Amino acid sequence: MSAAPLFTPPPRDPARSFQDMILTLHDFWSAEGQCVILQPYDMRMGAGTFHTATTLRALGPEPWNAAFVQPCRRPTDGRYGENPNRLQHYYQYQVILKPSPSDIQELYLKSLAAIGIDPLAHDIRFVEDDWESPTLGAWGLGWEVWCDGMEVTQFTYFQQMGGFDCKPVAGELTYGLERLAMYIQGVDNVYDLAFNSAGVSYGEVFLENERQMSKWNFEVANTEALFDLFAKAEAECRNALSAGVPIAAYEQAIEASHVFNLLQARGVISVQERASYMGRVRDLARSSCEAYAEKMTPEWSAKYPGWSLV
Amino acid sequence: MADFLLELRCEEIPARMQAGARAELEKLFRRELDAAGVKVGELTIWSTPRRLALIARGLPLATEAVSEEAKGPPEGAPDAAIDGFCKKAGVSRDQLELRDVKGRMTYFAVIEQPGRAMAEVLSAAIPAIIRDFAWPKSMRWGAASITTDSLRWVRPLSGIVALLDDAVVPCEVGGIAAGRETYGHRFHSKGPITIDGVDDYAIKLRDAFVIVGHEERQNIIRSGVAKAFEDMGLEVIADEGLVIENAGLTEWPVPLVGGFDEAFLAVPPEVIQLSARLNQKYFMARTADETLAPVFAFVANIAPHDGGALVVAGNEKVLAARLSDARFFWEQDQKTPLSAHAEKLSRITFHEKLGTVADKVERVAKLARWLCEEGIVAGDPALAEQAARLCKADLVTEMVGEFPELQGLMGGYYAAKEGLPVEVAEAIRDHYKPVGQGDDVPTAPVTVAVSLADKLDTLVGFYEVAERPTGSKDPFALRRASLAVIGTHLECEIRSNLLRVFDQVVDILNHQRLAKVPGAAEDAKEAAAKLGVVTASIVVAGVVENRSIRNGTGHHRTSWDLLDFFADRLKVQQREAGVRHDLIDAVFALGGEDDLVRLLARVHALQAFVTTEDGTNLLAGYKRAANILKKESWEPAAEPIAQTGEEDPLAMVDDPDIGDIVAEGGHTSPALSYTPEPAEQALIDALDAAAPRAAQAVEAEQFGEAMAALATLRAPIDRFFEEVTVNDPQADKRAARLALLAAFRDAVHRVADFGRIEG
């Protein structure tokens, strides 16, 4: 038996490859943040924050460090592949560190340096931008991080989630991956990004997808079926809640939220109805977070004597 | 004497909060030192995005010893009382002194507060300052936040420097101990910097690329940006708010200049400026011929090692993306005429009970036309209606969706691009004006008509559905709307009877609401007929739950309520101009004065008069007469009709002519059954001359003349009170004299209700 040839990974090239940039961030947060590197949540969602690794894990006293890429779907941002900056499907890189380490800003800046942003050649700024998600009953204080005037990251210290105070507070970093890559690679059109070092472009991977999905989001999706899906997700969320499985309920809340976004893109929800639908989604998401926190509390309190949910 | 340095270092403080934080730091520091009995002179307070610094020079080394005395119970009081007193004063019983207080031996405690070392005072003060610091928003962080009691700060607090002369003031807050180490610029400086004291603090920070003085950074930015543009033959569009904001975002400000494609200048300059300012915090420049130049300046927080080429290129790219978005909106919006945009307003709710924005537009259009047709505003009715129908259309455009601040302005641009009449485009552009006190009041007639109609509809609408301002709550900005209406009336000298105008607005609103319910109009007519009132859009099918009945005064209840509201706002608005609120009351109290221009002319004349000697004396005479009449319960034949609405209109309808009769009451002087005394006769004569003269002058709106007529009464009334006894034993004399006083009072009253005048 001959030994298989040894594989030595080539050095990463984040300045010329989208995937190398992602892999560099994985390397970085795995090593410097002691993060678990997760894979994307396998559901359609509007932001990485909806990932259970962020929302649900921000609750409770246990330390939690995670990093992952999350594809985000924003149906109304679709431009049929014709806008150089706007996409209905794009990637966010999420890092969540609980409790927030005292050197979290330095860690973050180091990660920028790792993907090729030299802070003495580029103007990095922390500009006030607080975050609030009524849907999740969550808010936090932080900044949008500017690189030469462009927002590249949302940086938030979660103060509340699901209506509960975060004890302890988690720090959340959300990198806009395409934007950062366009900046680092020096391209003006997202579809011109080099996806890898072997000549595959972002456009080759996603352009046709943007065209078809924009058309589906705006023109094709069967609205009756969507209304039906919304109602079913809502009912299933309640069903899961009453059965004491809040994680399953939370998934249905995410589903309802995305179906609502699709209905918005189809333009079939009037302004008046909009508020009521948003209220319903909020109800589902918050109830799920609350149920999760309440279900976990005995375990948390046992591990952390003196800790209480409220 | 010692000098004190405090630096509180933290993660980036929002720029907008830094000025407030400096004030808060000063306030709390003074509070703490005052409490310790230390006089604090001038303080130096600085801020950067990452630190707050305070320098206090010439503090004493120790506080002075103070001796306080407290008086306790008298000798022989129960032990419990004496022990309680000792406990409160913190002394033992044998330390009490007995002193004679008004012949009674009483216990006294003398509490000696020895002087405290300044370092000790500061050690206690610093944690108190940090814990009590009020930020607009604060947060918890880190491992300590496992409980909600952990320290709060605007962003995580990372270090404290506290030095009294060259010694560290020992203290600790939230696990952070005070020391002498700080950090310089985030990127240009590595490792800690050791501070010796007040004198080397700013210098060492400067060496570490931090200009700690915010004013110095502001100066660098202000002059740097101006100079950079000047070198290009351009002039900066000054923006002090932006200077301060950029100084709050940088520790080492480096102004740099970039450019953008001239083709973007096809987009209105306001759009470019707003996008650059709001989103990017950029400064813009104008050319010699006052047009926007295709350049911008921004403030970097580093001295880039390539001189800035990369930073400039990056910023140029960002602005180009913003501007291409703006140009896309600008072009996209123009593909649809405003009239088609306006149709989409029916999808936007204005207010749950007041319908959609399209409904509002419909009302405003009718009202704008009516204001012109009635000659209240000298505009062309057709143009006013056209402008009103389009005035909200830009709310559904992409551009206003992105930049709500540009509402009105964009509509104006799009209207001009469409080739609509210039009056219409102007009216669309300016109809939100005046937006606050100090903002320009529109004067172009078509604009005035649309502007007034819009605000009047809002005011009447929210009054009708009982969404009125209360206390500090005014969610629909009705106070501001009323001030705008008042300001426009005064500035443009618009002569209108507000009650009648309000009635018209109410009628338009209710007509619309009723039209939406099948059969409602008929029901309303019937109800009106039954009640015998002019119009009754009374409760029909639940649409109109407010009682919009024109009551016995001929006006809607809402109209009267609004007039009261306007009277209050007018007082506020005129306060700055030095117009007395009691005089406005005095004229309003006459009832029925709802022409703002006339009202104010009257108030001005009144103010000029009451401050003269004649005015003051006449006022005294009036009050004396009114008091006597009140004491004697001398009442005129009938009470004037109440001016505010009554729920049941029938309760109000006595006799429509009664008002005139009341107004005439007491004026005719019947033949006297006795020979009047000379002073009495003189008053009768003066009154016979002055009363009609004043009345005519008021009628002719010559209020100065009306005051002059009243002035002729001053000497006769003074003399009358001096020489004539009103309360004569002879009943006929007494009655005649009371009638004479009543006639005097009423004559004065025709000009203003002097009873409301203070003084």
What does this structure look like?
The complex is a heterodimer of chains A (310) and B (759). Chain A has 310 residues and is an alpha+beta fold. In chain A, 41% of the residues lie in helices and 20% in strands. Chain A has helices at residues 18-32, 104-114, 177-185, 202-220, 223-242, 246-265, 271-303; strands spanning 36-38, 64-73, 89-98, 124-128, 131-133, 138-147, 150-161, 164-165, 171-176. In chain A, strands 1, 2, 3, 4, 5, 6, 7, 8 and 9 form a nine-stranded mixed β-sheet that branches. In chain A, strand 7 and strand 8 (164-165) form a beta hairpin. In chain A, helix 5 (223-242) runs antiparallel to helix 6 (246-265). The longest helix of chain A has 33 residues, at 271-303. The N and C termini of chain A lie far apart (62 Å). The mean pLDDT of chain A is 94. Chain B is α+β, with helices and mostly antiparallel strands and 759 residues long. Helix content of chain B is 49%, strand content 13%. In chain B, the strands form five sheets. In chain B, strands 1, 2, 3, 7, 8, 9 and 10 form a seven-stranded mixed β-sheet that branches. In chain B, helix 11 (381-390) crosses helix 15 and helix 25 (678-699) runs antiparallel to helix 26 (703-711). The longest helix of chain B has 26 residues, at 309-334. Chain B is flat, with a radius of gyration of 37 Å. Residues 534-548 and 637-668 of chain B have low confidence and may be disordered. The A-B interface holds A 61, 85, 99-102, 105, 109, 119-128, 130, 140-143, 147-150, 157, 159, 165-169, 171, 183, 188, 270-272, 304, 307 and B 11-12, 14-16, 49, 137, 139-148, 154-156, 158, 186-188, 249-250, 280, 298, 300-302, 304-306, 310-311, 313-315, 317-319, 321, 347-349.
